Amino acid sequence: MRRHTKAAVVVTTLGALSFSAYAANAADTAGSINTGSGAAAESASWNHGTAQVNKRIMQQFTSQFLPTNDPALAKKFISPDIVMHFAGTTQQGLDTYRGIVAANMKAFPDLKWTVQDMRAEGDTVAIRYTMDGTHEGPFAGYEGTGKKVHAESMAFYRLAHGKIVEERAQLDMLTILQQIGAIPAA
To answer: Is the pLDDT of residue 15 over 50?
Structure first.
C-alpha cells in the first residue's frame, strides 16, 4: 500500500493546485480595522472584499497556472514557502509544488482540471474540481495504461499578500487507481 502514497500526494496536489491571492491576510488586517463604532461592519466588509479578491486570484490560478505549470505564473500565484497537506502528508516549498504538478502532467499529458464550485471567505478559498485525463505515464508505481480517468477533488487554499500560502487537498485516489487498473473495482 505504501507505493500508492506517493501517487496520492501527486494527484491530490494537482487537484489542490488548484491548482492564489493579492490581498493581505484578512485576519491580520481585520484586527487593525476593528477600532470603534461601526468597526464590525467595516471588518465584515473588508473580509468580504478580501474573499472576492482571493476568489479572482484563484480563478486566474486555475485557468492560467494549472494547465501550464509556467514558472513565472507559479511565482505570481504561489508563496515560495507554501505548505501543502494531502494524503496524510505535509510538504513545503514552491519547487516541491511545481514538481508535483509536473509529475501529474507527465502521468496524464491531457490532464484537465475543471472547477465545479468555488467559495471564498476571508483568506480562504474552497474549490471543488473534476479531473479528467489519459494515463500515459508513470503514476502510483504503474506505467501508463492509456486508460481515461475521471475523478473529483476538493481543496482549501489559504492566501496571504496575494499568494497561496497553504493548501489542504483531498483527491478521490480510489477511483483513479481503480480506473487505471491498479486495484480492483468494487
So the answer is: no
As given in the structure block, the three cell numbers for residue 182 are 491498479
pLDDT digits (tens, 9 = 90+) for 80-138: 999 999 988 999 999 999 999 999 999 999 999 999 999 999 999 999 999 999 999 99
Task: Say what the pTM is.
Answer: 0.74
Dist. CA 121–CA 93, nearest whole Å: 24
**Strand residues in the chain grouped as ranges (E):** 78-86, 89-92, 112-121, 124-134, 148-160, 163-171
Distance CA 141, CA 147 (A): 15
- First-to-last alpha carbon distance for the chain, in angstroms, is 17
**Kind plus residue range of the DSSP H or E element containing 12:** helix 2-16
DSSP state of 118: E
**SS3 helix, strand, coil % of the chain, rounded to 5?**
40, 30, 25
> How far is residue 52 CA from its own chain's centroid?
18
